[in-house]
Amino acid sequence: SIFQLHPNLLRLGLCCKFTHEPIKFHVTTATAMLRLPRSAQLARIADLCRANSEALLASLEFCASNGIGAFRINSQILPLKTHPTVGYTMDELPGNAEIIANFRECGRFARLHNLRVSFHPDQFVVINSPNPQTLAHSLAELNYQAEVAEWVDADTINIPGGGAYGDKAAALSVLCK
């Protein structure tokens, strides 16, 4: 088989969630955050980001101990990061240095155990959209994921091709630009 001939070519991987392990990534909604004053929003989001950095390390440890060579990180690992109303920069979060250090530890662990870490943006990331707001939000999402990808040594951010918008060749041209 190809796996026997090239064991580094084929890797089993996991995507984002666990159903039978006590590993959980945390999210929130903009509606929930809007009920809080900004300082409380940032404190709550910092707690979620910290918990997600710990869940990511637990995920990678699970992968390493179970012969799983790849893990795709959830696009909301930093919840609501680019949201137009409750979005934030890492500098705004209390304990941001600890959160980033936790993610960097995930990268060290992944390298040490030869785990491939990647991102796959959500379906609303459409960089060839004719809508300027969609494009701006899409680029913000990709920049945020690139920031985290650097911390965790991810080797891939899959960029969705977007829609054809009635003219596949033109849509591909816009995507390339």
Would you write up a description of this structure?
With 177 residues, the protein is an alpha/beta fold. Helices cover 47% and strands 7% of the residues. The protein has 6 helices and 4 strands. The chain has helices at 2-5, 30-34, 38-65, 96-112, 132-152, 168-176, and strands at residues 13-15, 70-73, 116-119, 156-157. The radius of gyration is 18 Å and the shape is globular.
Structural class label: alpha/beta
Order of helices and strands: HEHHEHEHEH
Radius of gyration based on Cα positions: 18 Å
Q: Biggest β-sheet, characterized?
A: 4 strands, parallel
Helix content: 40-55%
What is the terminal-to-terminal distance?
A: 40 Å
Tell me what portion of residues adopts beta-strand conformation. Answer: 5-15%
Assembly state of the chains shown: single chain
Overview in brief:
This protein has 177 residues and is α/β, with parallel strands linked by helices. It is built from 6 helices and 4 strands; from the N terminus they run αβααβαβαβα.
List the helices and strands and how they pair.
Blueprint: H1 2-5, E1 13-15, H2 30-34, H3 38-65, E2 70-73, H4 96-112, E3 116-119, H5 132-152, E4 156-157, H6 168-176
Parallel strand pairs: 1-2, 2-3, 3-4
